[in-house]
Prior knowledge:
- The strands form 6 sheets. The chain has a 5-stranded mixed beta sheet, with helices on one face. Strands 15-14-16-17-18 form a 5-stranded mixed beta sheet, with helices on both faces. A two-stranded antiparallel ribbon has the order 1-13.
- It is globular.
- The chain folds into 2 domains: 4-203, CbiD-like; 209-393, 3-Layer(aba) Sandwich (Beta-carbonic Anhydrase, Chain A), CATH 3.40.1050.
- The protein is built from 14 helices and 18 strands.
- By secondary structure, the protein is an alpha/beta fold.
- It has helices at residues 33-50, 144-157, 159-162, 176-180, 185-188, 209-224, 236-245, 261-270, 282-289, 304-313, 318-326, 330-339, 343-361, 385-393, and strands at 30-31, 56-60, 66-70, 73-77, 82-88, 102-110, 117-121, 124-125, 127-128, 166-172, 190-191, 193-194, 202-203, 229-233, 254-256, 275-280, 367-373, 379-384.
- It is 37% helix and 21% strand.
Amino acid sequence: MSSENKVGHASAPEKVRKGDAKRERGNRTGFTTGACSAAAARAATLGLLYSEVPEKVVCRLPNGNDQEFVVIEGCVEEVAGYANAVIVKDAGDDPDATHGAHMTAEVRILKHRAGEIVLKGGPGVGTVTKEGLGLEVGGPAINPVPRRNIIDNVRAAGNELLEHDGLEVTISVPGGEEMAKKTLNARLGILGGISILGTTGIVRPYSTAAFRASVVQAVDVAAKQGQTSVVFTTGGRTEKFAMKQLPELDESCFVQMGDFVKAAFTSAVKRQLPQVYVGAMVGKLTKMCQGLAVTHAWKAEIDRDILADSAREVGAPDDLIEEIRAAETARFAAEKLAALGLTVDFHKQLAKKAIRSLKSEYPGAYHLAVLVCDFEGNFICRVDEEEAQGEEAR
Length: 394
């Protein structure tokens, strides 16, 4: 493999190193399967272009930042017209089933198909077998954001190649089928391997005590700055959505609670913040209806009865209600009800139930409102506690 100067990209950003003494143990970020796949695909594309795979590659992450990755293995088969590259996934301090996975990309030239990029899943990448994931049934379990990110990196690196030919990119993960057994993939209808995930490219240690502590700290900071509102979101996409809905609030009011509902709400109650907002999508919203203190997918399954009952309450037909009760994802219900024009009514029902559950679990003098968005971060509805309590009184 060649040295990194062959890559010829912008300088790498600040790196996250395992041995960085300044970084507290338990709080080190890592990289998603999607980011590592994109980096491997970019390195393999450069291998085709330069006849040698680079030892390091700078990859553009979905969040817009550039990040340098070490390529541990790579080869170019010029006669056959393909190259491959391998990058080891480092999940940071998140207890991730895919930590250490050898994310492998093979990039193959498609003669006389100028500008075309085809993305496929190879061994160790799961196949989608059920609706409700926002992915094509029968296709690879590569989520939309990493899919775009892989293609964008390949296009950026292989622009010269694409002037005349196309490129076929195959992502594979040796041992991915075994890794998937430690996840809920099979239950979700993803068979034969892991999912390629990630909306920012960065893995934050949502599952660690350090992240829980950071949620508490963020609430404390908001309170100490004299803020009277706090906005809890489940991740970057819901935070961006909530910021658009509440532009009058200071940035310090927005706290990514991740899966730590209990830590967030007990902190807000303790600090006597008078206004609490929650920004969420259908899955986490349903988990809040269930009264879960931690909403991580590994902690508890979605309660399909809540989804089915909410569908019934907004007038869904009986056969669909039973389909929802048998489905494995909240997204399945959301997409089926959207087709019937019941998106707002359905999400309002869930939001009302979430408010009643949260106020019951975490009583206090605060006012609670829930903001709901779809999977693209678009506004669906807002429900305030008066609406939820009024319905309960009836």
